[in-house]
Amino acid sequence: MLSALQKSLAGSSQAICRRRMATIAPTLVQSKLTTSSQSKPTTRKAANPIKPVYLTLSSFTAKSNSAKKAVALDPTVFDHPIRRDILHLCVVHYLDSLRQGTASTKTRAEVAGSRRKIRPQKGSGRARLGDRQSPMLRGGGVAFGPKPRDFSTKLNRKVIQMGMRVALTMKLREQRLGVLQRINWWSHKTATLSSRLVGLGWRTGTLFVTGESEVPARMRLASRNLRGIECRSVADLVVYDIVKWRRVVLDLAAVDALERALGKGLLRISDSERVVSDVTHSSVDDIETST
């Protein structure tokens, strides 16, 4: 009897424990979920605003005591990650397009003359020869010579645009990019322009790029006899020019044209915000001077 009573009591106590655990477990899980949700609030990270890149505005006129001015540049165009492989593709693509591909030679079928066999095949003790158009003889045809062909290669438009961004970024980081209000000169005389370029340190290896349809007449006449100086419009600018020339100087119209063609539309710089006057270190950070 005692053993039966003990067994019944043990079974009833186990059933009671199971019921209590079944009622306590959901409350514990719910309390843990509420505490975890309270301890870890969900917050969204704000996107970093895109800030323009600033470059000191250069001038053709003499230096003055007035405050310096800076030009605001689109970072998607002038602060692109450096890709040397893209530059190589763009340069090779441009140089391939310059090849004329007009080299031509005559095969033995195109050389004029008799097709008679020079000597019998056997009996002379000398080497076997056919007609006089043989590539082995002087005046004969050329074996595997060049023929006119097209050397140009295909490169996607977006790759060329990326190459332009990379080239402009490299010039800016090397401090070899300058910006002028307008590329123009007051005289058509070469001597006056040459002396001013010497003062600025732009006498050799400088490419001037304007955003106008053509280079101003006085600037074109004054610079055409200067070796190491070239002027062109932004429509004729290619990646090879930026890589080749030691220094590139743009005007504000060229900057606008490049940003319209190469920008990604993430930052809009109006004409009123393009030039920043009264530049101080507190208002503008990291302004690079053009050399």
How would you characterize this protein structure?
The protein is α/β, with parallel strands linked by helices and 291 residues long. The chain has helices at 2-39, 75-78, 84-98, 157-173, 190-200, 217-223, 239-244, 252-262, 271-274; strands at 53-58, 70-73, 177-180, 206-210, 229-233, 247-251, 275-276. A seven-stranded mixed β-sheet has the order 5-4-6-3-1-2-7, with helices on both faces. Helix 5 (190-200) packs across helix 6 (217-223). The model is unreliable at 280-291 (pLDDT under 50).
List key phrases describing it.
7-stranded mixed β-sheet; alpha/beta; 291 residues; 9 helices
Shape summary: elongated
Amino-to-carboxy terminus distance: 109 Å
Radius of gyration: 39 Å
**Main beta sheet:** 7 strands, mixed
Percentage beta strand: 5-15%
Average pLDDT, all residues: 84
State the helicity in percent bands: 25-40%
Order of helices and strands: HEEHHHEHEHEHEHHE
Q: Structural class given helices, strands, pairing?
A: alpha/beta
Q: Which spans have pLDDT < 50 for at least 5 consecutive residues?
A: 280-291
- Order of strands in the sheet with most strands: 5-4-6-3-1-2-7
With helices defined by DSSP (H or I, 4 residues minimum), what is the helix count?
9
* Tally of strands: 7
